[in-house]
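Proteins fold reproducibly. Take a sample protein:
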Amino acid sequence: DLVFPSNVRTIGDAAFRETNITSIVLPENLEYLGEQAFVNCGSLKGGITFPEKIGSIPQECFTGCGNLTGTIVFKGEITEIGKRAFDYCAISGSLIIPNSCTSIGDRAFSRNRLSSILLPESLANIGEDAFADNNLMGVIRIPEEVTIVPSGAFAHNPLIQGLILGNQITAIDD
């Protein structure tokens, strides 16, 4: 287990890349996570709660954490979830993106086991393949601020029954 002291405010780029940690508890005072901070930590299990002071999840932060099977909880004002932030994990269940989030990067949550997502009205950008290869089901509502549904955003989710598109949609890519 990796439990950080409460005074840790920064976890740098690739800080724990390809280690065998099995769980993490992020400190409440954490303000910054670096790119690839926990990339390819294949033994990492459970879920992750992001403290209130984290403003974004950088690209590839948890990519390749294939045993990360729990839920993801965002307590604060996350504005951006970077490219491949949680690609090829095993996150399951429901995912609630915070109301403050405006951008979800390419493949941010691809290749997981998500069954449902709730996208906030503040969301303006959804990246390519952002939610591809999950277990999403039912109807997914695309927020009004989104103008393009990019290529593969919800691909390979055979249980999706439909999308409710906002009035600002100008393009739906291949």
